[in-house]
Amino acid sequence: MSNSTPTTDNEKKKSKGNRLPCSPSRVLHIRQIPSGVTGTEVVSLGLPFGRVTNVLMLRGKGQAFLEMASIDAAVSMVNCYTPAPPHLHNQPVYIQYSNYKELKTDNQHNQIIFSKFGFVLKIVMFHKNNQFQALLQYADAMNAYYAKMSLDGCSIYTGCCTLRIDFSKLTNLTVKYNNEKSRDFTRIDLPFGDGQRTVETSLSTPFATQSTIFPSYTGPPGFAPPLGFPQGAGPSVPPVPGALGPLTVTTSAAPAHMAIPGIPGNSVLLVSNLNSEAITPYGLFILFGVYGDVHRVKIMFKKRGIALVQMADATQAQLAINYLNGQRLYGRVMHATLSKYQTIQLPREGQEDKGLTKDYSNSPLHRFKNPCSKNFQNIVPPSATLHLSNIPPSVTVDDLKNLFTSKGSTVKGFKFFQKDCKMALIQLGSVEEAVHALIELHNHDFGENQHLRVAFSKSSI
Q: For residues 324 and 276, is the Cβ–Cβ distance under 8 A?
């Protein structure tokens, strides 16, 4: 992080009296943070609602600013935490919209390589076994996963300095100094010091739940690539002639094979606070299938508001938690977390189940069965705008609007893609409406074996 911090005079004035309501913003103001709370812990408050793009700790004031990737994510977070404030270090913290629409810092437009895949919390760099190596901790484990998938095997320079990236067994990096060897981007108060000497060595199950990756390269000593320190954030790694410039590494440079590997860990989710009158196994299969291939779904026989959802692997399970926990579904705020169960057992023959347990392991509707599918590159949070594809030529704008209206949606906007009339965007009245419409209309049969494909869109109309 840079030393530039938003002025908080307005926030101070509001804290002394009645708070004036702020309009929704991606930036959230968090108050009454206990001393000792880390930036990582503050970021964790936002992860259940979507991707976190920035964080700024004001430690002397017990405050922080958290920037979400979308306003919808911020709204979901505020709506969830306003009636029931979250706790950090056993003390409640209070969250409201900030007057700031984004966190502008000096490094915003100069992030290099690894920052392309998400918010980097901490970096530690060192030499070992004649190799330059580094540990990077992301705010989100999925950011680390996509960084590894995209950059492992890529060269920093043409024909040399090839990156080798793996997941670390460390759960957290402890950074003592902000200098050319280490940096904690959530702490602007750390001393420069004379180097990074220690790394926290607490271990847990690697890979699936880890946000720390371990890149190294076999280039010549003394020519370490600028891995991820944003320029302008205090002392930084000097740029090397010929190195990749800011924002030049994109997913298009990633290897073609983007299959999610079989990573060890729990792939079964516990989903609770469901509307027992509206939810079905198929509905959960379609919704959670946006973020991975759902193999089995079980709605509890005696507690219909609770369900188990088994994903293809632990990475997909974590992705579903990140994007769907806290999402409103049929009027209820859904909660998703990892289950203690490792698999969903199918009912025994003759066992009463009433169709509440379904096996979808061989479903043709899996979005990620093709390892080269573009769906891997288009995973986004639930949004009010839906991406429609596989639209037959005979289907008109009015046909599609009427179709969505018939399912209870309010259509606020619609447009076909200019270059491909088989695809379109449709904007509905709310994110919850879009979630319901996706469940109802994904795989809708237009006849003659033509089925509509529905996904959340990262674009808007």
A: no
**pTM here?**
0.50
Coil, helix or strand at residue 66? strand
Identify the pLDDT of residue 213: 63
286 & 316 share domain: yes
Stretch 248-265: mean pLDDT, rounded? Answer: 30
Give me the domain span that covers residue 166: 113-253
| Ramachandran category for residue 449: left, alpha or beta (phi over 0 → left; psi -120 to 50 → alpha) | left
DSSP secondary structure string for all residues of 127-181: EETTEEEEEEEESSHHHHHHHHHHHTT-EEETTEEEEEEEE-SBS-------SSS
Q: What is the mean pLDDT of residues 333-356?
A: 89
Sign of CA dihedral 231, 235, 237, 241: positive
User: What whole-number distance in Å separates Cα of residue 335 and Cα of residue 325?
Assistant: 5
pLDDT in tens, 184-196: 877 777 888 765 5
Whether 220 and 283 map to the same domain: the answer is no
Helix (H) or strand (E) holding 80: helix 71-81
Q: What is the pLDDT confidence band of residue 423, given thresholds at 50, 70 and 90?
A: very high
Q: What 3-state DSSP class applies to 37?
A: coil
Q: What is the number of structural domains in the chain?
A: 4
Strand partners for 310: 268, 296
Task: Check: CB of residue 207 under 8 Å from CB of residue 167.
Answer: yes
Are 128 and 179 in contact, with CB atoms under 8 Å apart?
no
Average pLDDT over residues 118-129: 82
Is 438 strand, coil or helix?
helix
371 part of a folded domain = no
Rounded Cα distance, 178 and 97, in Å: 30
pLDDT (tens digit, 9 = 90+) per residue, 11-29?
Answer: 444 444 444 567 899 999 9
**Residue 179 to residue 236: CA distance in whole angstroms:** 7
* Tokens found for residue 99: 């007057």
